[in-house]
Amino acid sequence: MTDKKPKNVFKQGAISSEFIGESIAKHQTKTSIGAHNIFLGQVRADVIDGKTVSAIEYTAYEDMANAKFDEIREAAFEKFELTCMHIYHSLGTVKAGEICLFVFVSSSRRKVVFKALEYIVEEIKAQVPVFGKEIFKDDSHQWKVNN
């Protein structure tokens, strides 16, 4: 890992479709790119023990999480022939139906972006210290179990 400070990947609240669109549009003029792939993690209105999730409140050890996101980013660039990558995760409350994780990768080849995106999302789920408190419609809550 380099000595540079890791990029802050966190956005307060839901990640908007405008932000996602602007991030993608920046790459339309890059003629070396042949494929893009995108993952949008959305809060589900799961029913747990008869109660429906209305939102998730995300918290993180931000410095540690940003460093881990940076490690994942560097490993993905080493493992795959990527041209570009964006990773953003929400902090704070995100309602059911809203986007909480945005991962975008680009490469000259389509097969690369599929493999890279799956690798990145699995690494994020397994390694990054981001925690979600599920808030139910009755205002009760519980800590989310990653699965």
From TrEMBL:
Q: Name one GO biological process term.
A: Mo-molybdopterin cofactor biosynthetic process
Annotated Pfam families: MoaE
Catalysed reaction equations from the record:
2 [molybdopterin-synthase sulfur-carrier protein]-C-terminal-Gly-aminoethanethioate + cyclic pyranopterin phosphate + H2O = molybdopterin + 2 [molybdopterin-synthase sulfur-carrier protein]-C-terminal Gly-Gly + 2 H(+)
What does the record give under GO molecular function?
molybdopterin synthase activity
Write the record's keywords in alphabetical order, separated by commas.
Answer: Molybdenum cofactor biosynthesis
Class of enzymatic activity (EC top level) = transferase
Record note on quaternary structure = Heterotetramer of 2 MoaD subunits and 2 MoaE subunits. Also stable as homodimer. The enzyme changes between these two forms during catalysis.
| The family this protein is said to belong to | Belongs to the MoaE family.
Q: What PANTHER family does UniProt report for this protein, alphabetically? A: MOLYBDOPTERIN SYNTHASE RELATED
Protein's name in the database? Molybdopterin synthase catalytic subunit
